[in-house]
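Good morning C.,

I know you're traveling, so I'll keep this short. The sequence:
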Amino acid sequence: MIVFFAMAFESGSVSQKRKRNCLSLDEKIQLIELIEGGKSQAEVFREKNVPCTTLNTIFINRDKIRKQRFEISGNRKKCRTSPNEEVKVALWQWFKQFTSENPSVPIDGNCLKIQATIANLKLRLRSRAKFIFSINARCQIT
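The tokens, ready to paste straight into the viewer:
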């Protein structure tokens, strides 16, 4: 068994793991356009060195990818969206206000995380207060 592995390794027949690469939205759109332009997925696979399953998944999700392209800048590789739209809106308003007041101060990811947490807490407290107020109004508690 060990001898067989050593012989296979010396001959180069043992496959190595492929390096994973993440495609940007623009690169995915280019792949979709190539396939829709008449090239087969196998041709695109060989030309662009993209795994077949990845190419197939991109082609299946082409409508979703095109929609994301208009919502998010095309050179991004991750397309995460906010699960809470109100926090996203509040964070964007804070960002615009802060950058207009302090144009020379850079904002990093940690600062955005802290502000998002603060916005989330404020929104939760506000919604909890509305809920308690509505219960008090229904039960006629003063």
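Safe travels,
E.
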